[in-house]
C-alpha cells in the first residue's frame, strides 16, 4: 500500500473504487444484456410483423379473391363481358370495380391479351400482359403487381359463362393509407421497394426513407441483426419478401427511438443508483475509517506521550471497539512496565550497585544543579587506607560488607543533617574505596564540626564475621565558597585533598590553593612530552655523565641521562617528567627514544674509536614490556654496537615489581651480553637475597651516602661495607654523587670501582664530553 | 338412371331414325383421349353424299332437359334451324343462359317447361349454363352437316355407310384441347379402313373442376 495516503483515505478509496468498479461492470454488463435483449426483441418483433404481414396479405387475398369471384360470377358482368363490346365492358368494369372499391379492373382474353381496362388509368397492355402470370390461369390467384410505380394486390379471376370466356384482373392498390393500416397492424413502418426505389412507404420522413432504402439495398435480404450499440440511426430496417412478388420487396422499419430512450433511461437509473451507492459507500467508509482512525489517533497520542516519557497512561475516556480497548489496556500495561524498567535503569545508572549510594555521574550532576542554584557546598571525599590489602586479608565478601556498612553509616549521618537543613545532603561512592559526601553549607565555619561528626560516625568499630576491624580513613575537603563553583573541579579538588592527606599522612586535609595548578601543570607536561616524543626536532636530548674507573684513572663508562627544555624554554626536572611518563604510560616510548639516541651515539663514538660503555635507565614498565628486548636488539643490530657496551640500570623498586618476570628477562639479557646495574642502591628495600639471586653486574650506591662522605663517619662505614659486600658477591660497585676530592680519595681507599659526580663532571652533551675527554681534563 | 338411359335411348333412336339412313355395312369409329380412354360426347362430322331429304314436314323438337342440376344430355346435336325445348325436370328453378355467338339466349328462372322451344338457326356450339348453378354446363351442337353424330358411352360411333378414302372427319369435344370453337380434323386413309374399327384420338384438357363458391372458400394456394 502506498503510505503517502492516510489509513482513512485508503479505506475510503478502497470502498469507493470497489463500488465504482462494480457499478461500471454492472453498467457495461447491463448495457450489453439490454442491447442483446432489445435486439432480440426487435428481431422477434420483425419476425412477428413479417408473419402478421404475410398472414394479413393472405387474408386480404382471400377476401379479395372471394370478392372478385363473386364479382366475376355476377350475371350482368358475365353478360357484359360476353357482349365483347369494349365500351360496355369498360363501363361494367368501372361499375363493378366501384362496388368492391377495386383500384384496377382489367379484362384479359383467353390468350392473356388485354381486352380492356377500367378507364381510371391508362396502361400499356404489355405491362399487364408481361406481369400477369402465364396463361392458362387454371385457378383464381392473387399476386402482387406493380404498374407505373404503383403496387397492387391483384386477383386474377376467370369469367365463366359457364365456360371461361375471359379473365378479369381486379387490383387493389397498396397506397399510403393501406400501408398505414398495415403499420397499425404490425406496429412497424412498412415501405415497398421496387428496383431500389421506394414506391410507397408509411414513413413520412424523407431521410429515414432514404436510409431504409440504403440499408435494405445494401445488405440485401441477408441482413445483420440490429446492433443497438453501434448504430446511430433511429430505425432498424429489414428487407423482406413481399407476398410472392419477385420484384417488389418490403422493408420493415422498427423504430429504435423508444428502445433507445428506454435504454438511456435504464443507464441513467443505473448511474443514479450507482451515484447514490457511491455516496452512501463514501459516507459509510468515512464513518468506518473514522471509527478506525479515532481509536488509532487516541492510541497514537498514547504512544507519543510514552515516547515523550509520560508513562502514566490516562484512563480510557471514550468508548472504543473491544479490540482497541484491549490494545489500549496493552498500552497502559506497557507504559507502567516501561516506567518500572526505566526506574530500574535510572536507579542502576545513578547508583552504585553495592551500596545503593549515588555513583560519580549522578552526584556530579546533582552537585552541578546545587551550584547552579547558588547553593554552597562542602565536599568531603574520604578514602579507606590500604583497602586493597584489607580486601586481600578478609576476603572481598567481608570487604563488601564493610563498604555497605560505611554506606549505611553515611546515610544515617546524612539523615541527621537533612533534618537540620533545607537542602539535602547527598552521598556517592566514587571509587572502590572512596566516598564523596556533598553537604550544603552557608559558611565554612561549620566545616570542622561537620567533618568531626562524620569521623565519629564512620570510624566506629566494624564487626565483620566476629572480627573487630578499625579503619583508618583519610578525608579531603573542598568547598564551593573558597574553591570555585565548578562541580567537576570541586570534586577533583576534594579528591586531591584526600591524596594529599594520604601523602602527608594526616587524616583530614583541606584543599590547599595551588594543588590543583600543580596537577594541571603535570597534565600539561604530559601532553607536551607526548608531542615532544613525536617531534622529529625533539626538544628532548641526551646528556652523558662520565664514570671514572678509579683503578685505571680513566673514564671508560658513561651514564646516559635524558634532558628536556620545554616550549617555554624551561628546563624540566627529569625526575618530574620521567615520573609523569611512568604514570601516564609514556615511559616505554620515552625509553625507546633514549635507547635509539644512545645507541646512535655509541655507534658514533665507536666510529671515532672510543669504546665506551653506556648505561641506560630503565623503569619497571620497560623491562616488563613485551617488545622491549626485541626493540633493543633490533636497534643494536641496525648500528654497529655490541650488547656489552650497554648497561641497563634499574632501581631496587623496579626490580621488586613482578620479580619473577623481571628476573627471567634480566637473565636473558645478560646471556645476550648486556650488563645489569642496580641503581640507587641502599635507600629502598635493599635485600641481600635479591642481590644473591639476580643476574646483576653492578651496584650503584645511592648518592645520599656519597654526597657528604668525607664528613660523615657513618656514611663511610656503610659505603665501605657495601663495597666490600659487592665485591664479595662479585659485583662492581659504583659511587655516584662524588662532589669533592676527599670523597674520591676515600672511595679509592675503599677500593670502589667507579666514581661519578660533579667533582668529575656534570652530565654534559656528547660533543662537550668528547671535548672534555680528549682534552684530558679529567685526568688528574 | 334407368329412366335417363331409357330416355336417351329413345331420343337417340329417334334421331337416328330421322337423320341417318340405315345401312347393312357398318363402320365403327372409336374416339379415345390421349390416355386411350373412350371419349363419350364427341361430335363427329364427316362429309358424305346426302342420302336423304327432309322427311317430315314438322320440325322435331329437341329436348335439353335439366335433371339433377345437370343438363341432359350433356351434349345435344341439333340440325341448323331446329327447335330445342328446355324442360326443367328438377324440383328447383333454373336460369339457363347462353352467351354463345351461335345462339344467345336467356331463360330466366323457371320451373317445368318453358313456354316455347327456342330455335337454333345458326351453326355453331352453344355453351349453356345456369346462372344460379355454376356447375351446370351443357352444350348444343348446331350442325349444318347432316352427317353429324356423337360418340356413345364407350366412345363409339357406328356408321351405317362406308367411309370412302379421303373422307374428312371433324371431331369436336367440349374438353378438346383445341378449344370450344375448333374441331380436330382427320382424313380416312387405307390403314384406317383395313381395321374393323377406326380409332381416333383427341387430346383433351382435364375437365375444369366446376367450382362453386363453397369450394372457393376451401381454395388454397
Brief write-up:
Chain A is α/β, with parallel strands linked by helices.
Features:
heterodimer; A: 780 residues; alpha/beta; TIM Barrel; 8-stranded mixed beta barrel; 5-stranded antiparallel beta sheet; B: 221 residues; mainly beta; Immunoglobulin-like; 2 domains; 5-stranded mixed beta sheet; 4-stranded antiparallel beta sheet; disordered N terminus
Describe this entry's structure for a reader.
The complex is a heterodimer of chains A (780) and B (221). In chain A, 53% of the residues lie in helices and 19% in strands. By secondary structure, chain A is α/β, with parallel strands linked by helices. In chain A, helix 1 (7-73) packs antiparallel against helix 7, helix 2 packs antiparallel against helix 3 and helix 17 (587-608) packs parallel to helix 19. The radius of gyration of chain A is 68 Å and the shape is rod-shaped. Residues 1-24 and 211-221 of chain B have low confidence and may be disordered. In chain B, a hairpin with a 2-residue loop joins strand 11 and strand 12. Chain B is mostly beta strands and 221 residues long. In chain B, 32% of the residues are buried. In chain B, the strands form five sheets. Chain B has a five-stranded mixed β-sheet, with no helix packed on it. The chains are: A alpha/beta (780), B mainly beta (221). The interface between A and B is medium-sized, with 22 and 20 residues.
Query: Share of helix among residues of chain B?
Result: 10-25%
Spatial separation of the terminal alpha carbons of chain A: 102 Å
Mean residue pLDDT of chain B: 78
CATH topology of the domain at 524-774 in chain A: TIM Barrel
Overall geometric form of chain B: globular
Number of helices of chain A: 26
Largest sheet of chain B: 5 strands, mixed
The helix content of chain A is 40-55%
| Count of β-strands of chain A | 24
Largest interface: A-B, 22 and 20 residues
CATH class of the domain at 524-774 in chain A: Alpha Beta
Strand order of the largest sheet of chain A: 17-18-19-20-21-22-23-24
- In total, the number of strands of chain B is 17
Total discrete domains of chain B: 2
- Strand residue content of chain B: 35-45%
For the biggest β-sheet of chain B, the strand order reads: 6-12-11-8-9
The CATH homologous superfamily name of the largest domain in chain B equals Carboxypeptidase-like, regulatory domain
> What structural category arises from helix and sheet content of chain A?
alpha/beta
Query: Radius of gyration of chain A from the CA trace?
Result: 68 Å
Amino acid at each position: 500500500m502506498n503510505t503517502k495516503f492516510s489509513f482513512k483515505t485508503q479505506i475510503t478509496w478502497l470502498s469507493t473504487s470497489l463500488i465504482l468498479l462494480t457499478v461500471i461492470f454492472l453498467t457495461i454488463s447491463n448495457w450489453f444484456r439490454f442491447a442483446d435483449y432489445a435486439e432480440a426483441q426487435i428481431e422477434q418483433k420483425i419476425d412477428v410483423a413479417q408473419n402478421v404481414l404475410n398472414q394479413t396479405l393472405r387474408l386480404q387475398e382471400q377476401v379479395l379473391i372471394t370478392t372478385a369471384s363473386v364479382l366475376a360470377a355476377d350475371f350482368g358482368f358475365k353478360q357484359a363481358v360476353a357482349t365483347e363490346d369494349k365500351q360496355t365492358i369498360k363501363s361494367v368494369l368501372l361499375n363493378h370495380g366501384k362496388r368492391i372499391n377495386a383500384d384496377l379492373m382489367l379484362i384479359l382474353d383467353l390468350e392473356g391479351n388485354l381486352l380492356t381496362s377500367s378507364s381510371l388509368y391508362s396502361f400499356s397492355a404489355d405491362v399487364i400482359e408481361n406481369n400477369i402470370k402465364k396463361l392458362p390461369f387454371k385457378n383464381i390467384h392473387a399476386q402482387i403487381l406493380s404498374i407505373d410505380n404503383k403496387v397492387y394486390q391483384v386477383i386474377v379471376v376467370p369469367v365463366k359463362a359457364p365456360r371461361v370466356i375471359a379473365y378479369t384482373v381486379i387490383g387493389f392498390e397498396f397506397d399510403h393509407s393501406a400501408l398505414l393500416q398495415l403499420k397499425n397492424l404490425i406496429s412497424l413502418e412498412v415501405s415497398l421497394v421496387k428496383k431500389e426505389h421506394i414506391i410507397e412507404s408509411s414513413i413520412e420522413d424523407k431521410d429515414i426513407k432514404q436510409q431504409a432504402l440504403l440499408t435494405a439495398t445494401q445488405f440485401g435480404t441477408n441482413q445483420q441483426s440490429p446492433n443497438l450499440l453501434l448504430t446511430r440511426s433511429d430505425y432498424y430496417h429489414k428487407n423482406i419478401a413481399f407476398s410472392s412478388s419477385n420484384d417488389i420487396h418490403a422493408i420493415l422499419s422498427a423504430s429504435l427511438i423508444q428502445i433507445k430512450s428506454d435504454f438511456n433511461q435504464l443507464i441513467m437509473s443505473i448511474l443514479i443508483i450507482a451515484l447514490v451507492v457511491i455516496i452512501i459507500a463514501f459516507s459509510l467508509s468515512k464513518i468506518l475509517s473514522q471509527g478506525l482512525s479515532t481509536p488509532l489517533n487516541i492510541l497514537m497520542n498514547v504512544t507519543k506521550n510514552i515516547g515523550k516519557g509520560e508513562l502514566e497512561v490516562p484512563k480510557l475516556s471514550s468508548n472504543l471497539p473491544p479490540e482497541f480497548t484491549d490494545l489500549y489496556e496493552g498500552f497502559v500495561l506497557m507504559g507502567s512496565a516501561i516506567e518500572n524498567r526505566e526506574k530500574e535503569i535510572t536507579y542502576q545508572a545513578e547508583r552504585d550497585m553495592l551500596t545503593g549510594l549515588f555513583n560519580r555521574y549522578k552526584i556530579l550532576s546533582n552537585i552541578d544543579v546545587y551550584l547552579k542554584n547558588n547553593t554552597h557546598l562542602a565536599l568531603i571525599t574520604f578514602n579507606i587506607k590500604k583497602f586493597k590489602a584489607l580486601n586481600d586479608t578478609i576476603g572481598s565478601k567481608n570487604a563488601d560488607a564493610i563498604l555497605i556498612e560505611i554506606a549505611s553509616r553515611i546515610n544515617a549521618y546524612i539523615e541527621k543533617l537533612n533534618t537540620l537543613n533545607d537542602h539535602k545532603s547527598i552521598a556517592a561512592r566514587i571509587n572502590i574505596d572512596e566516598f564523596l559526601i556533598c553537604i550544603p553549607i552557608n559558611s565554612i565555619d561549620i566545616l570542622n564540626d561537620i567533618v568531626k561528626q562524620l569521623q565519629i560516625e564512620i570510624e566506629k568499630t566494624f564487626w565483620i564475621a566476629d572480627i573487630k576491624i578499625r579503619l583508618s580513613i583519610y578525608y579531603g575537603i573542598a568547598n564551593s565558597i573558597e574553591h570555585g563553583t565548578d562541580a567537576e573541579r570541586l570534586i577533583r579538588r576534594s579528591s586531591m585533598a584526600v591524596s594529599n592527606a594520604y601523602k602527608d599522612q594526616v587524616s583530614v586535609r583541606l584543599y590547599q590553593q595551588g594543588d590543583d595548578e600543580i596537577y594541571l601543570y603535570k597534565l600539561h607536561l604530559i601532553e607536551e612530552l607526548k608531542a615532544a616524543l613525536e617531534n622529529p626536532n625533539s626538544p628532548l636530548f641526551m646528556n652523558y655523565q662520565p664514570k671514572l674507573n678509579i683503578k685505571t684513572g680513566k673514564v671508560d663508562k658513561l651514564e646516559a641521562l635524558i634532558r628536556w627544555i620545554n616550549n617555554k624554554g624551561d628546563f624540566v626536572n627529569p625526575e618530574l617528567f620521567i615520573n609523569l611518563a611512568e604514570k601516564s604510560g609514556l615511559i616505554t616510548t620515552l625509553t625507546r627514544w633514549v635507547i635509539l639516541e644512545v645507541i646512535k651515539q655509541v655507534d658514533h663514538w665507536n666510529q671515532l674509536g672510543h669504546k665506551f660503555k653506556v648505561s641506560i635507565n630503565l623503569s619497571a614498565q620497560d623491562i616488563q614490556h613485551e617488545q622491549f628486548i626485541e626493540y633493543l636488539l633490533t636497534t643494536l643490530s641496525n648500528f654497529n654496537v655490541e650488547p656489552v657496551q650497554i648497561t641497563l640500570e634499574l632501581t631496587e623498586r623496579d626490580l621488586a615489581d613482578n620479580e619473577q618476570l623481571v628476573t627471567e628477562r634480566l637473565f636473558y639479557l645478560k646471556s645476550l651480553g648486556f650488563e645489569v646495574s642496580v641503581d640507587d642502591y641502599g635507600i629502598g628495600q635493599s635485600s641481600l637475597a635479591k642481590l644473591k639471586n639476580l643476574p646483576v653486574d653492578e651496584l650503584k650506591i645511592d648518592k645520599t651516602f656519597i654526597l657528604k662522605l668525607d664528613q660523615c663517619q657513618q656514611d663511610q662505614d656503610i659505603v665501605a661495607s657495601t663495597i666490600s659486600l659487592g665485591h664479595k658477591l662479585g659485583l662492581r660497585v659504583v659511587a655516584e654523587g662524588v662532589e669533592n676530592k676527599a670523597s674520591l680519595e676515600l672511595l679509592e681507599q675503599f677500593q670502589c670501582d667507579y666514581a661519578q659526580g660533579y667533582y668529575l663532571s656534570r652530565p654534559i652533551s656528547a660533543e662537550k664530553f668528547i671535548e672534555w675527554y680528549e682534552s684530558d681534563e679529567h685526568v688528574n | 338412371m334407368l329412366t335417363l338411359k331409357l330416355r336417351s335411348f329413345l331420343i337417340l333412336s329417334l334421331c337416328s331414325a330421322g337423320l341417318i339412313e340405315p345401312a347393312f355395312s357398318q363402320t365403327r369409329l372409336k374416339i379415345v383421349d390421349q390416355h386411350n380412354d373412350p371419349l363419350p360426347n364427341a361430335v363427329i362430322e364427316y362429309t358424305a353424299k346426302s342420302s336423304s331429304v327432309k322427311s317430315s314436314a314438322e320440325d322435331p323438337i329437341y329436348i335439353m332437359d335439366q335433371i339433377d342440376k345437370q343438363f341432359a344430355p350433356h351434349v345435344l346435336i341439333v340440325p341448323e334451324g331446329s327447335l330445342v325445348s328446355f324442360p326443367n325436370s328438377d324440383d328447383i328453378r333454373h336460369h339457363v343462359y347462353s352467351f354463345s355467338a351461335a345462339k344467345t339466349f336467356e331463360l330466366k328462372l323457371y320451373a317445368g317447361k318453358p313456354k316455347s322451344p327456342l330455335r337454333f338457326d345458326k351453326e355453331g356450339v352453344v355453351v349453356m349454363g345456369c346462372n344460379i348453378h355454376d356447375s351446370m354446363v351443357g352444350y348444343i351442337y348446331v350442325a349444318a352437316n347432316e352427317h353429324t353424330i356423337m360418340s356413345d358411352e364407350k366412345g363409339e360411333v357406328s356408321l351405317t355407310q362406308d367411309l370412302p378414302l379421303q373422307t374428312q372427319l371433324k371431331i369436336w369435344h367440349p374438353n378438346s384441347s383445341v378449344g370450344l370453337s375448333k374441331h380436330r380434323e382427320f382424313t380416312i386413309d387405307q390403314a384406317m379402313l383395313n381395321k374393323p374399327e377406326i380409332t381416333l384420338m383427341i387430346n383433351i384438357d382435364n375437365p375444369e373442376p366446376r367450382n362453386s363458391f363453397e369450394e372457393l372458400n376451401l381454395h388454397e394456394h
